[in-house]
Amino acid sequence: MNSPQALLQQPLSLPNGSQLKNRLAKSAMSEALGTTDNHPTEALVRLYGRWAAGGSGLLITGNAMIDRRALGEPNNVVIEDDADLPLLRRWAEAGQATGAQIWVQLNHPGRQSPKGLNAENVAPSAVPFNQALQPFFAAPRALTEAEIVELIQRFARSAGVVKRAGFSGVQIHGAHGYLVSQFLSPLTNQRDDQWGGSAENRRRFVLEVFKAIRAEVGADFPIGIKLNSADFQRGGFTEEESLDVIVALQAAGIDLVELSGGTYEAPAMSDSGKHKASSLEREAYFLEFAEKIRATVKVPLMVTGGFRSVGGMNAALESGALDLVGIARGMAIEPDLPLRLLAGKEPEHAVRPIRTGIKAIDRMALMEVVWYSRQLRRLAKGQATKPNESGLWSFCANLVHNGLGTWKTRRLRA
After folding, report:
1. Residues whose CB falls within 8 Å of the CB of residue 398, separated by 6 or more in sequence, listed in order
2. Average pLDDT per run of 10 along the chain, which is 414 residues long?
3. Is residue 293 part of a domain?
4. Which of 89, 116, 155, 397 is the most buried (most CB within 10 A)?
5. Cα 131 → chain centroid
6. Calpha distance 6→181 (Å, rounded)
7. Burial tier of 299 (Cβ tally within 10 Å: 0-12, 13-18, 19+)
8. Full residue range of the structural domain in which residue 44 is found
9. Is the pTM of this model over 0.70?
10. How many separate domains does the chain show?
11. Is the CB of residue 51 less than 8 Å from the CB of residue 95?
12. Are strands 12-13 and 19-20 parallel, antiparallel or unpaired?
C-alpha cells in the first residue's frame, strides 16, 4: 500500500525535458526585499537558501519587475539588464543548492501600483479601480501600441538576463489583476485595435510575450505562466476564455501552467474570496477548473491555494487533474514545510485568513500580501516567523514601512 505522500515524492518531467525532483512547488509571494533603487540583495540569497533547504522541487520567486518606471510596490527587484548579474547568480545558486529548480516570476503591474510610487501608471485602457480601491490606486493612462511592443521586448530581455544569471526558468505573471491579466480581461481592456476587443485580440499580448521570451531563451529553458481561471467579476475574464488561452499557450510550447484566480477587486486567490463548499472540502480552490483543463490539454498543471493536508495534496495528484502542488503562505510561516509533507507529516501551523477588523481593508486581498511579506522579511534575517501576529498590527506597521519606501523611491527619482 502506498504511503499518503507517495505521489508528492515523485519527480515531474516538463515538456522541455527538464525535471523537478518532486511534486511540491513554492508559489510566488512578493518579498519586497530589493533595495530602494530596486536591485537584488543578500536578503534574497538568504531567504531562498532557507527555502531550498526546505525540500521543494520548484521555487518560484516573487514578482521581479521588467521596467524600473513601473513598480508594483516599494523594494521590488527590477531586472532590466546585466548590471546585477553577480548577485543574481548568488540568488540562483542559493535556490538550487539542494537540487530544486528556481524560476523568476516576471511581472509588470499595469494600473495595479500604489498611488505615488510611479510617475504614472499605464494599462491597456484608462480604466480606474472601483470606488473602494481608488484611494489606493491612481487611474492609469492607456498604453500606445509602440509602448505595448516595447513591453513585450522588455519581458524577453529580462528573461534573457535571468537565464544568464543561472536561474532554472521563468514564469510570466498573468494573474491577479496585473498587466497581462489586464490585457486578458474585457473589464480592463477596452481597446478597439489588435490588442483588444475580441477574446482572440485580448490574448494576443500574452502570446506575443511568450513567443518573445522563447525566442530569447531557447527551447530548453522552462517558461511557465501563472494564469487566472477567471476574474470572478461580472463581465470579466471567464473560465472559457482562460481555457482558450491555455490551449493557445500549449500549442506555442508553454512548459507549466499555474492556475489561480481573482484580482484585488475580487480576491478569489485568498481566503478572503468566496469558495464553494466542495472546493474547501477538497482543499484546492481551483481544482474543479483544473479538471476541466485536464480534459482538454496535456500541459503540466500546477494548482495553488487552499491545500491544508498531505492527504488533500496526494488526492489531488491522484485525480490526475494536476501535476504539481503549489504552496505559498504555508512556506512563509513554515519554511521547511515541504520536508514535513514529503515525510508524511502534517503542517505545524494552519494558514488562516488575515483580518484587521477594518471592513474596507478585509474585503481586499491586500493583507494576504502585507502580513506574509513581514514573515518573509523575518526569514530573510534568519529570524523565527510569527504565525500569530495580529493582522491590525501588521497592517499598521506595513503602512509605515511602505509609506517610507514610497517616499524614498520618489525622492531617489526626483
Report:
1. 370, 373, 374
2. 83 96 96 96 98 98 97 96 98 98 98 94 96 90 98 98 98 95 96 98 98 98 93 78 96 96 57 46 76 95 91 94 95 96 92 74 68 90 88 73 67 69
3. yes
4. 155
5. 25
6. 35
7. buried
8. 7-352
9. yes
10. 1
11. yes
12. antiparallel
